[in-house]
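Kindly inspect both lines:
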Amino acid sequence: LASKYPGGDIYLSQLNMQTATEFEYYIRNSPIKVDDPCLGNGLAKHMQRFKRIVNWAVEIDWLKNNPFAKYSCPVKKHKRKKLNFQQLVTLEQKVFADENLNFVKDLFICSCYTGFAFADVMELGEEHFEMDTDGTIWCKVYRLKSDVLSPVPLMKPAAEIINRYKVLPESIKRGKIFPSISNQYVNRCLKVIQAICEIDIPFTFHVARHTFAKTVALKNGVPLETVQTMMGHTKITTTQIYADVDEEKILDDMSGVEGQLLKKRALVMERFSPA
């Protein structure tokens, strides 16, 4: 607006399809970083938010209708990255010379076995753990993003990490399970870990959440509805994003099918073959 209009502002009644087109053009050609243009899904998300803001104007009767309702800004779906079980175990057994890398690895592994996002892991405290009558330890967290309860039974690999860090002076002083660390620093360390372990998946902390949903839960027979509850999703459609079908799942589902078909085929041929 500042670059196109003298006053740097316009009335809502002046919004039209041309405004949206000019806004998209501006995003494409005015990157915040010269070597990092905003294109593809990044651009689409900006346009979606723009449309949503104008929808609010319609909802509170500042506009009769959204002039951008028919403006198309599709988001391209990418295949979600996650570790397979072999990569997960390999990462667990890796020991680094740098203690910061070991700490980041442990945070990542903890998330792989709980499904918690980085912000939720960093807010874990003693109050989030409960022991059931049968001895099961539950980790119950209201997700910071959605304020939805995520009850997860604590598995041994995550429990060992939690027990190791909760007694550290930094953790006790902070009143949390883990010492403080920033998300940006964690993601930088994860790229180093990825390179050292020679894993061909771009590492971010969110990969751990996908690993929990797909590799740890769904591929071991946990129903989609249960995964939805543990991950704190408000909609099952969000959980379905994590349950994408890949070649490994196709192979698992199809294993044994050929043998069964050959047996049925032999029976049918035997039954209907001429005497």
Q: What stands out?
A: The beta strands are 129-131, 137-142, 149-153. The mean pLDDT is 88.
